[in-house]
Amino acid sequence: MTPTDGSSSESGPDVREVDLVVLGAGPGGEAIASGAAAAGLEVVVVDRHLVGGECPYYGCIPSKMMVRAADALAEAGRVPQLAGDATVVPSWAPVHARIRDEATTDWDDSVAVDRLVDAGATVHHGIGRLAGTGRVTVELPDGSAGPTYEARRGVVLNVGTRPAAPPVEGLADTPYWTNREAVRTETVPGSLVVLGGGPIGSEMAQTFARFGSRVTVVQHGERLLGGDEPEASAVLAEVFAHEGIRVMTGAELTRASYADGTFTLTLGTGDELTADQLLVAAGRTPNLDDVGLETVGLDPTARTVETDERMRAGERLWAIGDITGKGAYTHVSMYQSAVALADVTGAEHAPARYHAVPHTTFTDPEVGGVGLTEQAARDAGLRVRVGTTPLEASSRGFTHGPGARGVIKLVEDADRGVLVGATAAGPAGGEILGLLALAVHAEVPVETLRTMIYAYPTFHRAIETALGELA
Ligand SMILES: Cc1cc2nc3c(=O)[nH]c(=O)nc-3n(C[C@H](O)[C@H](O)[C@H](O)COP(=O)(O)OP(=O)(O)OC[C@H]3O[C@@H](n4cnc5c(N)ncnc54)[C@H](O)[C@@H]3O)c2cc1C
Ligand SMILES: NC(=O)c1ccc[n+]([C@@H]2O[C@H](COP(=O)([O-])OP(=O)(O)OC[C@H]3O[C@@H](n4cnc5c(N)ncnc54)[C@H](O)[C@@H]3O)[C@@H](O)[C@H]2O)c1
């Protein structure tokens, strides 16, 4: 099928039959669309914004370019302790240029669209909505009705999330940033308040602080990275304090206003903060409220769409990505995409399992985690043993010197003798995590992990020490 912008004709709605409609094209949606088209199916993709979704344009990729630059500055700052003198004058210009030119082609998805078209798919920019089983309507960018599709095999829902706007008085009237504005900025604010100390807030707070911004994190919860192990949060809080980032925990923003280039932010305690910019990173809202879920018997007010182990969410309906609530990560979206593609095309595939979902927050130290935290394992009723060791106490940590803070924590199901969760916080924590993710995924017996030889002096060798601490 050739690309088309389609429209209703005067003789009535333009209804077209195809094999598969991918509604929302995040990373997983893009992948399943090209996979299904390569398998010979007639595929239509509908995306209201940029094909590829949040990750390449506003999420993972631009934010990791920012982190990379900030880490380079931090490493330069460690030279005096390690290797003499280094003078660095931070400049945001190369960061912005890499994001604009290399990562996002100035927030233009033509390359992604062309890739899909070359694979044989039809792509619409527009709002897609379910209109009953296997049926999708398209509203074109100018507000006119596009074609309606009847999908013989069905519909893949991959509509993702948008930044949540917390109900703070006055906030909507201020020019606050979300991740979308933060990755597009051409300048670094002199001072920045970050609302939210989750992965987005933590990565961005440290990045802008390393580029010279005076940063305050206002965090509702009791600690940074509340979904991770408390030991990892503690390490990060120490590093943030050392780098001059103020972290206010248990703090609630109640009022926001903006005048003459300054944000004034009132906290529940009555305390007032002022800053040049406010970045709201307080979670995500699923794009499920305007996608016609009610037409297929699903709840449009739900935060997630329930799926089975084949990613089926209903009759001729699959759901993948953040909306499934199995981990808002690109790798989960891609994993689910492969499972759903196999189901759509009738190929063999192992059913989806989530016992070993890994994640890494790319702060410095990186915080990697897989499977259950100690608390989650206890809440699940497991008999738990944990082993913990500081990374800087390892031989590699000692030789590394500045910037070696970190922790390895292992969570064992003592009855089965396997790891059900693990954390690797430290330099390259996300890379150390690889070994642990394999152990949790493959349920490698702890006794087998103890017989392994761990290269000396690597960071991952600290896993052996943590195994020795399991108690
Ligand atoms: C700042 C930031 C950093 C991140 N860093 C990482 C990271 O390092 N590693 C990682 O694994 N994950 C990271 N993530 C998360 C990652 O971006 C998401 O998990 C990933 O994009 C997968 O999301 P998704 O496929 O569910 O949908 P999304 O990427 O949100 O894509 C959904 C698509 O659906 C479209 N859409 C929505 N509604 C409609 C509709 N009605 N009709 C048509 N189209 C519609 C949207 O325009 C969008 O293109 C980060 C996220 C953010 C915000
Ligand atoms: N490296 C990565 O893999 C990566 C990076 C960024 C984002 N992500 C994904 O994107 C998701 C969204 O990230 P996020 O950081 O926005 O969400 P989050 O839900 O993980 O964290 C939001 C934080 O904001 C706090 N918060 C919420 N409302 C608040 C308020 N009114 N005042 C103060 N604090 C408030 C919460 O306590 C929480 O700690 C993550 O869960 C993750 O799955 C992944």
Query: Please, how many helices?
Result: 14
- The coarse silhouette is globular
Low-confidence stretches: 1-9
For the termini, the CA-CA separation is 61 Å
Ligands in the model, by name, code or SMILES, are: flavin-adenine dinucleotide, nicotinamide-adenine-dinucleotide
Task: Name the beta content range.
Answer: 25-35%
CATH domain class name of the largest domain: Alpha Beta
Radius of gyration: 24 Å
So, the CATH homologous superfamily of the largest domain? FAD/NAD(P)-binding domain
Query: Helicity, in percent?
Result: 25-40%
Structural class per helix/strand content?
alpha/beta
* Residue-averaged pLDDT: 96
Number of domains: 3
- State the major sheet: 8 strands, mixed
Count of beta strands:
22
CATH topology of the largest domain: FAD/NAD(P)-binding domain
CATH 2nd-level architecture of the largest domain: 3-Layer(bba) Sandwich
Can you offer a commentary on this structure?
Its cofactor is FAD. InterPro entries: FAD/NAD-bd_sf, FAD/NAD-binding_dom, FAD/NAD-linked_Rdtase_dimer_sf, Pyr_nuc-diS_OxRdtase, Pyr_nucl-diS_OxRdtase_dimer. With 471 residues, the chain is of the alpha/beta class. The protein folds into 3 domains: 15-52 and 109-162 and 286-345, FAD/NAD(P)-binding domain, CATH 3.50.50; 171-281, FAD/NAD(P)-binding domain, CATH 3.50.50.60; 358-470, Enolase-like, domain 1. Helices cover 30% and strands 25% of the residues. It contains 14 helices and 22 strands. The protein has helices spanning 27-38, 54-57, 60-82, 93-103, 110-119, 179-182, 199-210, 230-242, 330-345, 374-379, 395-400, 429-441, 446-450, 462-469, and strands at residues 15-23, 43-47, 122-125, 127-130, 135-139, 145-157, 161-163, 191-195, 214-218, 246-248, 253-259, 262-267, 272-275, 277-280, 284-286, 312-314, 317-319, 358-361, 366-371, 384-390, 407-413, 418-426. The strands form 5 sheets. Strands 1, 2, 3, 4, 5, 6, 16 and 17 form an 8-stranded mixed beta sheet that branches. A 5-stranded antiparallel beta sheet has the order 18-19-22-21-20, sandwiched between helices. The radius of gyration is 24 Å and the shape is globular. The structure holds flavin-adenine dinucleotide and nicotinamide-adenine-dinucleotide. Nicotinamide-adenine-dinucleotide is lined by residues 166, 195-201, 203, 218-221, 226, 252-253, 281-284, 328-329, 359-362.
